[in-house]
## 1
Amino acid sequence: MVDKKDLTKYTTEEVAAHNNVSSTWIIIDNNVYDVTKFLEEHPGGDEVLLEQAGQNATESFKDVGHSRDAVEMTKEYLIGYLSDANATEAAGDKTNSSTSPTIAKNGASWVDIIFSSTWSNFLIPLAISAVVYLLYRGIKTAF
């Protein structure tokens, strides 16, 4: 793993300047990534990354529910981190920047967990299947 002291410190203004196809930087969890070379390889297409170019993509990155491999792959593109003065501003929330992701995840309500994209992709089809099955059984018994 790269030691933070070996990384370059950037401001949000510096990152914002890299918002096009020739230079695409994004911020995830106050880390700065140069994803220019990854644009053509991104499974969701380059436009997904270009929409977030030069800005904080933390929420979008986490909302998608990337695999562990995808999260691990981000290390290849890590070029620096946000300076402390700009880190909280770029995070776009009022939470303490020292709060670990594990604590934040554990603090989520059950509604957030149930309706997260991962669970809803499983639960909604399951519920529909159960309703269809029960209707089928009810109709079959009636006739």
Note: Residues 29 and 58 are 6 Å apart (CA to CA).
## 2
Amino acid sequence: MCGFHSGRHGGGRGVFRIVVGVDGSDSSLAALEWALDEARLRSGQVQVVTVWHYPIIGDAAGRAEDYEAFGETARGVHADALRRASEAGVPATGEVTEGHPADVLLKTTVGADLLVVGSRGHGGFAGLFLGSVSSHAVQHAPCPVLVLRAGAESVQG
């Protein structure tokens, strides 16, 4: 686990709020598990954000069924993340949004104490949470950011 202290976040102003980006990739699920553990330790809450984007290739927009399939997949990933939070006993809220992952995450982190994202996401599943998203978050988020990769060993202490 990674410990940190930031004087401007979580300074006794209420419940510690962790925003976590989840797209179903291994690294985003590692980020979710870390966020749930940290929220439990801090008696905090997690806000799960799942962002999807329908890829337009060339001039073709695709069929309506294909478009809806991306949204359905994202809603399923999000529901699974909220289920995991419930099973862990951590209060969780969240949203599924169509848009650019980096933009949506940054808007969601306003007032948050911490943003947790995976280092790389699904390339095929609408290109969510690519390494460029975690990089953008580190550079522009208004709160501390933790980037996790799948398979990273957890350090307890």
Note: The helical segments are 26-41, 64-88, 101-108, 131-140.
## 3
Amino acid sequence: MSCSSSERPPTLPGANCPFPGIAIHTRKGDIPPMRIKQPLLTAWFVIITLSTVPVYADSSSAATIGNPSAPAAPLTLDTFLALVRRENPVLTAARSGIDVARGWRSQARLLPNPTLEVEVGDMATDRFGDLGESVNTFLLSQEFVTADKRRAMTAIADTEVTISSLEYEVLEREMLTHGRQAFFTLLAAQERVAAFERLLDIARRGAEASRHRVEAGDASPVDTVRAGVALSQAVIGHRHAGAAAANANVALQQLTGCSDGALPQIGSATTLYELPSEAESEASLLAALEQHPAARALQAAVSLAAGELTLARKERWPNIEAGFGIESVPDENDGRDESFVIELSLPLPVFDRNQGAIAAAKSAYRQAELQYRAGRVQLTTQLRQALRNYVAARQSTETYRSEVVPGAQRAFDLVKRSYEAGEINQLELLDAQQSLIEAELAYIDNLADLRQAQAELQGLTFTTAGNGTTQRSE
């Protein structure tokens, strides 16, 4: 499996190391009922599953996984998403659901089986089993489906296959969205760990310098207490960053089905620092939303309800059963007379004209239409929220990239020159460097938020919105 050959991003100035719902029913009878999962419930299931992963895994492990299909080389985003498509256990199970729907479609296309009837009558009780004196009838009958009901049932089954396929696409998009988010979450978490390591080193040096100044009588003991508090906060932050990285690593394992081992380390963090392009216009994104599988599944659900209503109306007309056979009766000369038998069975729709099923199908059709409208409103709302989140996150990231971090860097450079000129002490230098790293940490957080918003927007539109990148300036 290929891995990224790109190098780590340039070192940030001042850093000592590289800166890092719809319930759809089928009619009872010829086609067994199938339950179509609601996309929103599927999304809740995925979110709840991902939120329950443990936080005590070792994020630094790069051991080979027991699953032989998992890659051994460092993971790039494209490689990881391909692995999610292929190995995710939820998607694997969902693919089987499509095969189930196809099986019921094949069943709906089959003709009713013929019936062979054998009737023996007028058998003497004193010679039981003597067929020579009995009236024997052999009849072969066949049920004929009327009113073109078989075509209606096949159309329903076709629609159910379509819905199953669309639901799989919805689930796949959700998994890929979570995959992108988890990938960049782990990248950001690892960068935060590296930044906190630098911050921890600065806090330790600051505490040591403060202690020496107090011992020399150049500073108040209060400075030592403050430096100790800063060191404790850095230690806590480093621990939390490590736990977050471990949690993100386990989330990646879960998405790929690698529960009994750790994935190899992900590739370069360069992609985290790339600034995505501006989003497309809302109108173009709304047009792309029309092709979202959830929107198409809602429309297919309306078609399914319409098909069930059509079938319910057709079932007012009963099926006809016709039979043809031979009847053999004993004659007066100890022989047997044979004659043809024709049988025709037609239920009379006097009381049951499928009125209840038709009324239920009409209500189900109205419900499907209302759910379609509600689902479209929900998708549109989600898109607009995702677009606003993306625009806000991108603007915030751009501000940190062009103003906050460079400003903190300039401040550090000025303090550093003053320190080299002997105008300030080491504590002031360390304080400026700490402020720079804290700005870098905030920048990482904004980058992570931006990638989360970008993944959400891409999952809704499946376009290249926000895909273009501009390399981070040095």
Note: The two ends are 32 Å apart (CA to CA).
## 4
Amino acid sequence: MAKFVLIGSGLAGGLLAAYLGRRGYEVDLYERRTDPREGNMVGGRSINLALSTRGIHALEQIGIADEVLKHAIPMRGRMIHPAAAGSAPIFVPYDVDPNKHINSIGRAALNTTVIEAAQRYPNVRVHFNHLAHGYKELTIPPGPDGSWRMEKEALHIWPRKSFMMIALPNPDGSFTCTLFWEFEGPRSFATTKTDDDVRRFFEEEFPDAVPLMPNLLDDFRNNPTGSLVTIRCAPWFYKDKVALVGDAAHAVVPFYGQGMNAAFEDCVVLDECLAQFPEDRQRTFAEYFQRRKLNADALADLALENFIEMRDKTASRAFRAKKKLDHFLEAALPGVYLPLYTMVTFTRIPYAQAARRARLQDRIVYAGLILVITSILALIVLLFR
């Protein structure tokens, strides 16, 4: 049987090794970092992940979805924390169906599970310690009784126009918080250097979060500041020799919670292409690239747009009104009207197709609203002539 060499045992690398191992290929998986099962995750790469339909489908194909979901916390919507002191948080559900939710899961737990799934196959060998906007992580620890200090079944957002903080729940009662902020500028990571600077900034911008973060200063001082990147490249393969998968081909900013799900979907598609062209690896790689490139570019755009939405719009009444309208239309027209978030997160509709359909739906809805408003105004004019 042919051999595959995989470089990088991140989430996509580990899962792809399991898919290839299942097909009987000889697989060598190389990773420059240490084994994640030893608890040595590299700093700056531990942002909690949002596992949704596409990723769950990929895990189901190799029988580990249930095992992974045991470590997950369901998030049924966004909990918006307004800037005004004393303002109550506002819950915005993700979907009209309360049973639809995304799943918060730690990177280390998921990485461990996919690597162990790959190593179930004797033909898969894993080699660790083999060299070939910014963000900073903080923590809200559990309460004294071990319980969560905020609503656990929500993705918490503190939108502040040019920056924001989010918090995702963990099974141990804590929350992993991530501050997305500018590297440089009058108010930025670069100008926030002392403990007093940090304390003042958080007390001004996140007053409701500060009492929940006893280790704020230590976390801010000791945790590295990570980088956010979008990768667009082509082609993703060279003849029958090399193909890129996951972030190596199409890294996206994390604001749609789809980077991991898209990488897992790459594994599903590549597996399907191998089944379609088992004796022609170059054609396999070409078909995989053709099926994924347009969708990866669409996701990159959607992720950047969702950053603007989360940062600037989630606290506005207009945003919440649009969400309510989306949910009303989805309930009134089941299977006909699907909000963009629902298509991206709770279906396997290709990303590019979902984006096109959402734009068309928005045009129809806006045209309908204009028609209704115009008709009402015309009726008023007729009644009062």
Note: Residues 110 and 118 are 13 Å apart (CA to CA).
